[in-house]
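Entry type: protein chain
Record version: 2
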Amino acid sequence: MQDLTVLVLEDEPFQRLVTVTALEKVLPGPILQAADGHEAVAVLSDCDAVDIVLCDLKMAGMDGLAFLRHASSSGKIGAVVLCSELDPVLRQATVAMIHCLGLTFLGDLGKPFKLEGFSQMVKLYREHCSAAPRQLSSAELPTLSDVQEGLDKGEFEAYYQPKVTMKGQLLVGAEVLARWTHPQWGVLAPMHFLPVMEKHNLINRLFWQMFEQGLALQQRLAAQGRIINLAFNLHPAQLACSALPERISMLIKRSQVPAASVMFEITESGLISAPARSLENLVRLRMLGCGLAMDDFGAGYSSLDRLSELPFSQIKLDRAFVRKMQNQPKSAAIISCSVALAQALGISLVIEGVETVEQQARLIELGGTLAQGFLFARPMPESHFINFCTHRTSPGKS
């Protein structure tokens, strides 16, 4: 496996020496060091890239905050680990800043430096790098004609990410996600094609392809006695289409799939300024018997207002709260309150982004019952999902 390059930004000489010495004993790659932000900027300019920065925050001259801002624009930083004595509340705010800068945050070690904790973060970083989709160069990025051709040829394929019970990991449904099986570049994630589709109003074509593939799968599973709930993502622009509920109703009836086994996920940010037609369509989808899930709950600014106004049957808690749970006690409190809110409203709560058994155990303590995340299963093609269903459900159950 490729050696990692690590930069230690620490203004206290003895602490910096201890940290660098400890890292040199366990990591074969180069361990760089800097006493302040200016030195760290100079180090960055002299190297191709740094995988992980261990960053102190409060120091004379250019501090860690200013350095991180500079590092984000340089494009040379893979991930950040905080090592600071700054007040925990201020460190939490810094973590939010790191995410806003587009940098990968691995964790907060505090002080003094803890090698064991850092080793776990290195492991997470390697897993993150291996799981990340292959980045296409700007010269390789799909053009509008590429995307249109892919849609015409049926190259876009529905992948399924299971939703499971937190205890026992029993299948309760799945989210339908789009992947592009490209003849040259292989399987491409949405980040490679959604921007083009949004710009040129092709989201609708993609949705109907995913919807029909999902319904066809539900038909096949129903023939085996398995009723599986599938959730489809609706783009805000689609909600304003007056023909949306009628076409959905027609396709559901034609496939003979129970409407109750079909759910639509809508991000709360997409509902902030939704027109009356969009809100009407949400009501009509519920009148058909379909489910509605508020996706990325807590990531926007009008969650509670929209939740009280609209007929949602499920909340999907944004993955950011799980990611921050270990270092931010407030996140755990928000998760616990979300569990209680869902129970009080009589709707289900799916917690997104569960990636470790430690997170799973803590979420169970907080009252969580349903989850989605890499710990349980990654998005998978239809054949793999059918096999997953066989081993995780009993006939007739979703």
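Comment: The chain has two domains: 6-131, 144-390.
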